[in-house]
Amino acid sequence: MPAFEPHELAGFRRWAHAILTHRRGREIYQTSTMGALLSGVYEGDVTIRELLRHGDFGLGTFNCLDGEMLVLDGVCYQLRSDGSATIADPEERTPFAAVTWFRPDRRIEISAPCDRAALKALIDQTLESTNLMVAVRVTGQFSSIHTRTVAEQHPPYRPFTEATQDQQEVTFTDVSGTLAGFRMPDYEQGIAVAGYHSHFIDTDRRHGGHTLDYRLVSGTVEIGIRSELHLSLQRTAQFLGAELDHDDLDGQIRQTEGG
């Protein structure tokens, strides 16, 4: 095998780094599927430390549904059922999460109040296609944010539609903070959550939850288009033995995610 000259090796490293950087800027990394979560697969094998090697922005949940997850600026937050937010232990594990390296392709300034439906419609109008994945970050002032968090579950695990019946809902008023999440194409329902899925955390990083509804007073919307999905499936006994063929997949996800 021929040896590389030092300048050739340095050139190869720069080329490889450029290729990897370009690719990861188009990719969403996801562990497990929404369909598995519906079936009660609440224990995953990916640690938060490992998850953060794949992105600095995203959302998900924790093992046993012990809080909603929000990843923002490379920090993973655990949003609990009382509405509080804390930095997650890097050795915690997740049964479902999606992250990306957030680099916005465009920004939209919002200067007039709008509700959730109006903001979603506005974002959709700026997209060249709804067949690609979109990372969405909304930073601003909200007159109200209605959130939920599912209570921690214990074996034997109930299906997700039953677990969410005991969810705790909290409404924050006159609060500044950030919504972080994704807009996924309709054809990905079951793999992910089709449409808009976001979690909220306030500016002080002390409170938040899964977003059910909101009214934005003013702020900035940043969107990043993604065309590649890296889907990492679990090899746990729970996942391997789960029944993942759901009769009413779309209806169950809309019920549990508030869509």
Automatic annotation (TrEMBL):
<comment type="similarity">
    <text>Belongs to the alpha-acetolactate decarboxylase family.</text>
</comment>
<dbReference type="Pfam" id="PF03306">
    <property type="entry name" value="AAL_decarboxy"/>
</dbReference>
<dbReference type="InterPro" id="IPR005128">
    <property type="entry name" value="Acetolactate_a_deCO2ase"/>
</dbReference>
<keyword id="KW-0456">Lyase</keyword>
<dbReference type="GO" id="GO:0047605">
    <property type="term" value="F:acetolactate decarboxylase activity"/>
</dbReference>
<protein>
    <recommendedName>
        <fullName>Alpha-acetolactate decarboxylase</fullName>
        <ecNumber>4.1.1.5</ecNumber>
    </recommendedName>
</protein>
<dbReference type="GO" id="GO:0045151">
    <property type="term" value="P:acetoin biosynthetic process"/>
</dbReference>
<keyword id="KW-0005">Acetoin biosynthesis</keyword>
<comment type="pathway">
    <text>Polyol metabolism; (R,R)-butane-2,3-diol biosynthesis; (R,R)-butane-2,3-diol from pyruvate: step 2/3.</text>
</comment>
<keyword id="KW-0210">Decarboxylase</keyword>
